[in-house]
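Hi Prof. W.,

I finally got the MarR family winged helix-turn-helix transcriptional regulator prediction working! I wasn't sure whether to trim anything, so I left the full sequence exactly as given:
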Amino acid sequence: MATAEPARPGYALPLLLLAGFRTLIDDLHAELARQGHPELRPLHGFVLQAVGMDGTTATELGQRLGISKQAAGKTVDRLVAAGYLERIDDPADARRRLVRVTPRGADGLHRSAQIFDQLRERWAATLGPDRVAALEDDLSTVASANWFRLDMPGWFGG
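And this is what came out:
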């Protein structure tokens, strides 16, 4: 005898969370493109944040992102070509090259933060500010303590 599927099956929750995340990210990138950053992709935000304003090496970047040095290097190459990152000699060690965020990269990060604020406001206008705040509070309660991790690209990639 088959059992009835629950009204809210467990597998729906992660799919809905992913769909909400995807909606925010797609809306973010559509607006970034309108504001002059059509080259930026979801992975690039993680990369720019992992590089940080002090810069890093490709090896350190790969470790921060949970991806190989080679994968990090290819992504850096793309972001250098697009003007978001640059490679410079490390002033503390002439044998090393650093990757750092350019003014264009910093502008992309700044605009991303502003757009996320606008997207949150849009969700609050649709759902109500109290429901969005409650959703954030609830997710903060159930998410791990170190919920913001730059190694998401490596986690998604397996």
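The mean pLDDT is 90. Does that look reasonable to you?

Thanks,
D.
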